[in-house]
Write a structure and sequence with these properties.
The protein has 216 residues and is an alpha/beta fold. The protein has a domain of 81 residues. The protein contains 6 helices and 7 strands. Strands 3-2-1-4-5-7-6 form a 7-stranded mixed beta sheet. β6 and β7 form a beta hairpin. It is globular, with a radius of gyration of 18 Å. It starts with a helix and ends with a strand.
């Protein structure tokens, strides 16, 4: 976030096409638009902006009901699908722990804290390929290559993504989070991270997440 704010032009609009958990857009200032392919996630953000009250308790039975009836309350589905699921994976199983941690309340508190700075963010349900940005600062955190995708979501075409980034870079300032990128993209920021991935010796793998931009 500090890097993005540092390269941002005066009054430049900000666009995040893969908003996910809103960890970046919630910390960015000024005019902001955030999009995602998951309609339930966008329904959640829009509903909370308009005063929707999230639950603080959610039973496993209620979790299953929401999972089986996703369109009954799309905002609630967005919240339960991520915030009340194992490891934050889209309906990856009811979140529980031996310490009887209340994941529902924790997720609500986390989102409400972010929402304090996102009251004026424009949230839109969009496939990134349908966007036509001009003159914007764009931050992309797409599904990483060779990682698990959302259940029920089409496979992510990585090659197509990089081609769109080349097109956008002609008239925008575009930055992409990934571990690797094509040769015509240059890393401007390296961030060492720890993952849950383990190697053959069962040691936790360290990786370097990078911020790439197109080398026009």
């Amino acid at each position: 976030m500090p890097y993005l704010e540092g390269v941002r032009k005066e009054n430049q609009k900000f666009l995040e096409p893969f908003v996910g958990g809103a960890n970046i857009v919630s910390k960015i200032s000024g005019n902001r638009t955030a999009c995602d392919f998951n309609e339930y996630l966008i329904a959640l953000y829009n509903a909370v902006q308009n005063g929707y009250e999230l639950p603080e308790e959610l039973s496993e039975e209620e979790y299953r009901h929401v999972k089986d009836n996703k369109d009954e309350n799309k905002a609630l589905t967005g919240f339960v699908g991520f915030g009340c699921s194992f490891a934050g994976k889209w309906f990856g199983g009811y979140a529980r722990s031996k310490q009887k941690r209340n994941y529902c309340r924790g997720s609500k508190n986390s989102l409400m804290k972010k929402m304090v700075t996102m009251k004026d963010v424009l949230f839109m349900w969009k496939d990134y390929k349908t966007l036509d940005p001009h003159g914007m600062l764009i931050y992309c955190d797409p599904p990483y290559k060779n990682t698990t995708k959302y259940t029920g979501v089409p496979d992510f075409d990585t090659e197509e993504f990089w081609n769109v980034m080349r097109k956008w870079s002609i008239d925008n300032d575009v930055y992409i989070s990934e571990y690797n990128a094509p040769a015509d993209f240059v890393s401007v920021l390296d961030i060492p991270t720890r993952t849950n991935i383990r190697d053959k010796s069962d040691s936790v793998c360290d990786r370097t997440e990078k911020l790439f931009t197109y080398n026009i």
